[in-house]
Inverse folding.
């Protein structure tokens, strides 16, 4: 009898005992809330893209007016005419360093080219010997590497008239010498692309465009739209090679800089309809604002100048984002972002992507394992699951995306961060694009894990045309 009573009492009390020992199942995480964003038609001063302002050095120059005129790029033609047969003096190198310091102070970046003459064609002034060019590249290496942060990319230069790889007075118009000089430049500036003037030279050195991308070799066209062959850009041995060359360049320029200038009006090829088609095909990132004025005027008269200005390089706009607006300390932020790149090109140089939470006094940031350089023209969606620090204060935070410069020297300068083309998202003081607000609160549902770091649990991205 006693035995049966014991079993009866145990069967009643055991479930109550277990309820006190086993934690209750976590409530569901708050559902993501959809947010939509308004596109902005405004011109945006984003880094490493757009019309560039030309300068000739080593004469003294100031760069403070560049952003005022609506540009973020300068083009430096650095002439070494006085040193065709001698080393570069320390005075010259120090003067160039002053120029780079001024460029950084102005909040812009430079496309650079070294040359030994200013033409003319075909009776050009001398260039330098290969040995002298290689010696000068050796001397310039510390300068280039010290200023990689404010160099957008480099034009191969050095050889021939204007450094444009033709009409060399030192017999450097051959692929062997050109390849050796190009390789020396690539070694001298190991984190930047180097552009070659003629597609035929690039194709001869790198038959597969993917190999050229890997080697960090791009293309600049200094007579864009100015004849049927762009004044010899697409011509070899009297043959028009534009179809072959542009097919190659269309692949090469997906992830390498494409820039240059126009050199003479050639309607209708140089006018709006064709100009936009070729800029789309060749993924143009930048072009000279000063040359040729006749073509630029035709773009203005034809009504496409503003479109060209806005679309050169990348133009990123957020369309929507979904995220849970309430999160427990130690909980999970689920984020989905949809954006569109309506520019001609991708982001060229390496750049991190951060998600940021801040409330004015406290800031949490984490870099996503997503490469923004893969955001080609078209539509991109990326998702991320992020662990919120368990010691985060229970306050309302702003949720933002941050695309700063790669280099620590420029990281916290908002002039070098990327702004999305949206109304009301940009914080010009911090360089952040604010998506909305999230509240950290214990009352939110979902699981919680200890850990004082803002971390990435997962992240992925996809782009479609």
């Amino acid at each position: 009898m006693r035995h049966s009573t014991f079993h009866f009492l145990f069967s009643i009390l055991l479930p109550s005992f277990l309820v006190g020992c086993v934690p209750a199942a976590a409530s569901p995480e708050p559902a993501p809330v959809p947010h939509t964003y308004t596109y902005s038609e405004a011109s945006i001063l984003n880094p490493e893209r757009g019309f560039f302002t030309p300068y000739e050095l080593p004469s003294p120059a100031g760069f403070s007016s560049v952003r005022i005129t609506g540009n973020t790029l300068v083009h430096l033609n650095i002439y070494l005419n006085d040193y065709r047969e001698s080393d570069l003096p320390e005075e010259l190198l120090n003067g160039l360093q002053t120029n780079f310091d001024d460029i950084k102070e102005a909040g812009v970046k430079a496309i650079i080219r070294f040359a030994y003459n200013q033409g003319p064609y075909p009776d050009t002034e001398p260039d330098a010997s290969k040995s002298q060019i290689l010696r000068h590249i050796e001397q310039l290496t510390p300068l280039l590497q010290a200023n990689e942060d404010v160099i957008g990319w480099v034009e191969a230069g050095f050889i021939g008239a204007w450094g444009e790889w033709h009409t060399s007075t030192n017999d450097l118009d051959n692929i062997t010498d050109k390849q050796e000089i190009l390789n020396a430049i690539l070694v001298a500036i190991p984190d930047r692309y180097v552009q070659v003037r003629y597609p035929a030279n690039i194709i001869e050195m790198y038959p597969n465009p993917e190999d050229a991308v890997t080697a960090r070799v791009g293309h600049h066209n200094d007579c864009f739209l100015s004849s049927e062959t762009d004044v010899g850009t697409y011509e070899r041995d009297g043959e028009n090679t534009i179809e072959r060359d542009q097919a190659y360049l269309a692949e090469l320029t997906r992830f390498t800089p494409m820039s240059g200038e126009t050199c003479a009006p050639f309607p209708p090829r140089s006018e709006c309809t064709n100009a936009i088609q070729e800029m789309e095909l060749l993924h143009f990132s930048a072009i000279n604002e000063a040359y040729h004025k006749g073509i630029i005027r035709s773009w203005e008269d034809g009504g496409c100048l503003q479109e060209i200005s806005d679309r050169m390089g990348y133009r990123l706009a957020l369309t929507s984002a979904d995220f849970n607006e309430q999160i427990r300390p130690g909980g999970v932020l689920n984020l989905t972002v949809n954006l569109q790149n309506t520019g001609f090109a991708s982001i060229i140089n390496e750049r991190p992507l951060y998600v940021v939470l801040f409330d004015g006094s406290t800031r949490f940031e984490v870099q996503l394992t997503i490469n923004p350089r893969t955001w080609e023209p078209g539509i991109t969606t990326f998702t991320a699951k992020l662990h919120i620090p368990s010691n985060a204060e229970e306050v309302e935070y702003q949720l933002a995306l941050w695309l700063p410069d790669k280099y620590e020297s420029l990281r916290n300068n908002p002039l070098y961060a990327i702004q999305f083309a949206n109304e009301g998202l940009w914080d010009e003081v911090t360089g952040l694009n604010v998506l909305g607000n999230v509240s950290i609160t214990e009352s939110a549902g979902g699981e919680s894990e200890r850990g004082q770091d803002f971390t990435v649990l997962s992240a992925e991205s996809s782009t479609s045309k």
User: Anything to note?
Assistant: Residues 1-25 have pLDDT under 50 and may be disordered. DSSP finds eleven helices and 21 strands in the chain.
